[in-house]
Design goal:
Layout lengths: L10 E2 L5 H32 L4 H9 L1 E2 L8 E2 H26 L6 H26 L18 H11 L5 H25 L6 H19 L5 H18 L4 H10 L17 H25 L10 H4 L3 H28 L3 E2 L5 H10 L5 H11 L4 H31 L1 H9 L22
Parallel strand pairs: 1-4
Antiparallel strand pairs: 2-3
Helix pairs in contact: 1-5, 1-6, 1-10, 3-6, 3-9, 3-10, 4-6, 4-12, 5-6, 5-15, 7-8, 8-9, 12-13, 12-15, 13-15, 14-15
Membrane topology: Multi-pass membrane protein
Catalytic activity: Na(+)(in) + 2 H(+)(out) = Na(+)(out) + 2 H(+)(in)
Keywords: Antiport, Cell membrane, Ion transport, Membrane, Sodium, Sodium transport, Transmembrane, Transmembrane helix, Transport
Amino acid sequence: MTATPPRNSPRLFDRGSWPEARRIGDILRKETIGGVLLLAGAVLALIWANSPWGDSYETLRGFTIGPASLHLDLSLATWAADGLLAIFFFVAGLELKREFVAGDLRDPRRAAVPIAAAVGGVLVPAVLYLAINVSADDGAVKGWAIPTATDIAFALAVLAVIGRCLPHAMRTFLLTLAVVDDLLAIVIIAVFYTSDLSVLPLLGALAPLAVFTVLVQRRVRAWWLLLPLAFATWTLMHASGIHATVAGVLLGFAVPVLRSRQAGGPDAGPGMAEHFEHRFRPISAGVAVPVFAFMSAGVAVGGPDGLGSALTDPVAVGILVGLIVGKPVGITAATWLVTRFTRAKMDSGFAWIDVFGLAVLAGIGFTVSLLIGELAFGVGSDRDDHVKVAVLTGSLGAALLATVILRLRNRTYRRIHEAENTDADRDDIPDVYQQSEPGRPENA
């Protein structure tokens, strides 16, 4: 008989609070639609790049637009990677701060599990990639970070399709893991993929960032003030040599989560971050990420230099192994270590196959993986094409394996899902979120 965990022990896949579950549900609906659009953009790019009109696709990607006086005469592909993805990382910054300030993960015991899982999901794929490419030539080791990223929109879209009856806590875990994963990715980009650092523009970026911070801390929402400051921060960050998406994360971190004292203080609930997230998440999921996918995923897979050549490249092999093997091993092992050496326990009704299924799903490394590949090997290079083939193949493989595992688990949770649906009472809050359990406070 399994011993009851201590009263204050955190539990893996804990149900959390009803407000948090409802908020996660709203996020999932937007990210699911974004995942479908992302997939559509990637498929359209692949079809176009492999059609008789493939040259016109490359011409479109290379079309230059922007003011040369500001060094912003960039190709459309660069605008998608540096500009549109800054919106994606702005939303990621908002979400991460929201989780740790006002979400269920403000409890360090709960936060430790997805953070440890994310770190394990970064370290193990990187180690496997380096092991495969350590003796390769032509700077292959530069791509060590490519298989470390998890694509939020793509992974959540797959989970929404294959796991309609899976508990909300599993979705919350995957979302939080992916957000922390994105933060680690942006740190990696800033530290390891900044070749030429210009100090003056970097210091200059701090000025509009500081003004932006002061304004949002004072709850100013005027777009005609905030957008020029955000653009100035992005422009100067781009000029400094650090990837401009870092500006998106910093701007997201600057936005306050809780309401001001005049509006009721911390107990009044979320504030500016929720407002910005509501405004920008649809733009991120519905425009920024799909357009980036369209601009980045087009690669010719036919002919002697296509799929066969790419998958024999050690770089591509390292990416495939990292995504399909490294991600699930790293996430599962890190989660097991947390339960083994801390007081964290698996919540009742969950099994390790649930953890492994989510870990396999986290091997879908699309958006940020393609971005890091371009930074590591250069846009349009042969290695860049091999990276695209490997990322697409590895992400597809991870999605298919996760589908098999989680569809089986979905059947197991079907009855629980139906029971929770029948538990909703007149206040629209499922009774399961209002019940006290031994060793667990009531969820309001």
